Amino acid sequence: MSVQRLQKVLAAAGVASRREAEQIILDGRVQVNGRTVSSLPVLVDPERDRICVDGRPLRAERKVYYLLHKPKGVHCTNRDPAGRPRAIDLLRGVRERVFPVGRLDADSVGLLLMTNDGELAQRLTHPRYGVPRTYRAHVGGRISGEDIQRLRKGVWLAEGKTNVAGARIVHSGRDVSVVEITLREGRKHEVRRILARLGHPVRRLTRIRLGPLSLRGLPSGAFRPLAPQELAALRRAADGPTTDGQIGRPGKVARSTPRAAE
To answer: Which pLDDT tens digit goes with each residue over 146-187?
Structure first.
């Protein structure tokens, strides 16, 4: 086998997503042929080189995919020295070393894909592929049609103008409203920030869809493996949008750092 970038090998083995694997390397947690590496790039031959993570030899795992309904107060990290509840703690009986695809902050709830497929995770979170993520937000105040138009046109944040793929009112009340927002790229706490800019602070935020996946029938705190047809549909979505916005081969999208919105 030809040499490959170390982070790609770690992702393929199910250690973490490729982006997270880069940080694991920089943290000095990886050894190649007995030598700790802590800078990039690193090229390895996975068939010849002995690779260890945290002292444990790297072994290829079967790829697994789980849909988790994350409750409030659960953190999307596999390492937490503070000992707080983690998403992986809810996957009782799962032996593979899985990780969350994208992040929801501790106060947010909803759909979280857990897998050890680093390549798929990279595609699902990178803005180039434009996989849609839909959030349902309970906000303070009355959401109006004018607010929805502003969302669809884009709201300016410090990093630039947001690109909202879709927005609709679920309920509009005097004190509390419910709105659904779909994004195809993510910035940190993006949903909360754009709604705050409109004067509607988020009181509760739920991710209800990721590409073709939904939370339907899955109670809070529960998880289940993806059905074969769900995985096939997710892979098609991760092939990226075409130039006309339909699912297909990746089109040209402005580059930005891949990060799931919250």
So the answer is: 999 999 999 999 888 988 999 999 999 999 999 999 999 878
Q: What angle do CA 86, 89, 91 make, to 5 degrees?
A: 125
Per the residue annotation, which of 27, 80, 105, 117 is the catalytic one?
105
- Measured CA to CA, the distance from residue 34 to residue 215 in angstroms comes to 44
| pTM assigned to the model | 0.77
Domain(s) labelled CATH 3.10.290.10 in the chain stretch across 4-57
- Say whether 105 is catalytic: yes
Query: What count of Cα atoms within 13 Å lies in the side-chain half-sphere of residue 242?
Result: 5
CATH number of this structure's domain 4-57, picked from the four choices 2.60.120.260, 3.40.50.11420, 3.10.290.10, 3.30.450.40 = 3.10.290.10
Domain with CATH 3.30.2350.10 in the chain: 70-262
d(CA 183, CA 191): 9
Kindly provide the b/e burial profile for residues 131-163, where b requires at least 16 CB atoms within 10 angstroms of the residue's own CB: bbbbbbbbbebebeeebbebbeeebebeeeebb
Overall fold of domain 70-262:
Pseudouridine synthase (3.30.2350)
> Can you give the pLDDT at residue 68?
98
Dist. CA 143–CA 177, nearest whole Å: 6
Distance CA 25, CA 197 (A): 38
CA dist., res. 251 & res. 244, Å (int):
9
